[in-house]
Design goal:
The chain is of the alpha+beta class. About 40% of the residues lie in helices and about 25% in strands. The chain has helices at about 10-25, 25-45, 55-60, 100-105; strands spanning about 5, 50-55, 65-70, 75-80, 85-95, 110, 115. The strands form 2 sheets. The protein has a 5-stranded mixed sheet, sandwiched between helices. A two-stranded antiparallel sheet has the order 6-7. β6 and β7 form a beta hairpin. It is globular and about 40 Å long. The model has no long low-confidence stretch (mean pLDDT about 90).
Length: about 120
């Protein structure tokens, strides 16, 4: 069975997204967003290739990182097929500039409990 893990950044992003939703729209929206992320995690357990490849990533040949959407956030995840594990890499609010945020985040390796996660991206030219 596929296991789903949050990277340290993914956990931090989720905390920030929940805090922002509560502050901006109230506890009901925060809870709905939290439930939407839980639904994505459940879907990833059943189908680790759930979601879609973001068109900008596909344009540069990165097809291993997939995106799933909630009402207010983009959830980016990576399927490590040999280990049958999915890593939630980041959660980006839909209102943020995707390119800037993704570029900055991907320049540093993802961590899980402070240790690097092995993510191999194949860029097709």
């Amino acid at each position: 069975m596929t296991q789903v893990f949050f990277t340290d950044d993914g956990k931090d992003d989720l905390r920030k997204a929940k805090a922002y939703a509560k502050k901006k729209w109230g506890g009901a929206v925060r809870d709905a967003e939290n439930n939407a992320v839980k639904a994505i995690v459940a879907a990833l357990v059943q189908n680790p290739l759930y979601g879609k490849v973001h068109p900008l990533l596909a344009a540069i040949g990165i097809t291993e990182v997939r995106e799933s959407l909630t009402k207010y956030n983009r959830v980016f995840h990576y399927y490590d097929q040999p280990n049958d594990s999915v890593y939630i890499l980041m959660i980006i609010p839909t209102m943020r500039d995707f390119v800037t945020h993704f570029s900055q985040r991907m320049l540093s390796p993802p961590l899980k409990k402070g240790k690097p996660v092995n993510i191999t991206l194949t860029i097709i030219k």
